[in-house]
TrEMBL record:
It is an enzyme of class 2 (transferase). One of its GO terms (biological process) is carboxylic acid biosynthetic process. This is branched-chain-amino-acid transaminase. The gene is ilvE_2. Belongs to the class-IV pyridoxal-phosphate-dependent aminotransferase family. GO terms for molecular function: branched-chain-amino-acid transaminase activity. Acts on leucine, isoleucine and valine. The lineage of its organism: Bacteria, Pseudomonadati, Pseudomonadota, Betaproteobacteria, Burkholderiales. Its EC number is 2.6.1.42.
Amino acid sequence: MTQPDVGRIDGLTYPHGVAYMAGRFLPMSEARISVLDWGLLHSDVTYDTVHVWDGKFFRLDLHIERFRRSLAKLRLTVPHDDDALRGILIECVRRSGHRNAYVEMLCTRGISPTFSRDPREALNQFVAFAVPFGSVANARQVKEGLHLYLIDSVRRIPPESVDPQIKNYHWLDLVTAQFHGFDAGAETVVIKDMDGNIAEGPGFNIFAVKNGTLYTPERGVLHGITRRTVFDIAAQEGFAVNAGAVDETLLRDADEIFITSTAGGIMPVSRLNDTPVGNGRPGEITQAVFRVYWAWHNDPAYTLDVDYDGDHHAR
Ligand code: PLP
């Protein structure tokens, strides 16, 4: 199994990982894009993130389908069919040796050879990489719950401006809110949409549980694959789900709150601003969803094994 060193280049240290770009697999430290790439200059890029847990991809096909929809909406082209794409992602993980990995596929608008301002003239750039699994919540927070702040001073970019179903890096609203939250003592934050309803947080969807029903925002948020998995778990376990407008009162009165992301899974919230949620500990429904979510990581219906001794790259 290849184990490239943790990269140090130009005085910077990179996480141990493997990337694929321009037809080659590279140590993470060597995977670079030009400063002229529209992905950087205009945030003209889409991406998707899937995780590998205990050597298995979780719901990879759903992530590839969502990536394809994002690419089509942005009129970006990736020169790989689904089998080749899957092969590249598996090979990044295999070469990294990571049993628990955060795996990203992205496509930037790229560079126009003449620095033209016409996006049709740019050459789209596909990049994939696998680095160690990262989570929105640390181990203590996953066990005991996060201290979440609802931030009112920054509103989520409206879906009329940027379609949230195109998974994107337009994160200045989310990052600004994070700093406002950190100043107030938050561990993470959730923001509202322009109508004043609850939207989402930096890299996660949110669920409130009230009287046994799960509520989650529908409009103006990314329809996360973890959120979708919660719907599937709820159907199996017999929990009612209401995907629609979630107002501040519903969130503040919730019996339980949890957040969902590929980066961490199902993560309980124990405090909202200065108030404990429920009894201040992860709630029963949250824990039930958590257990099924991780059990499904061993279910072949939802997983794809990485053969760390093989070579998956479709040549
Ligand atoms: N919302 C936003 C803005 C995100 O960036 C993400 C993931 O990165 C999510 C929600 C959760 O989506 P998923 O469950 O597919 O990881």
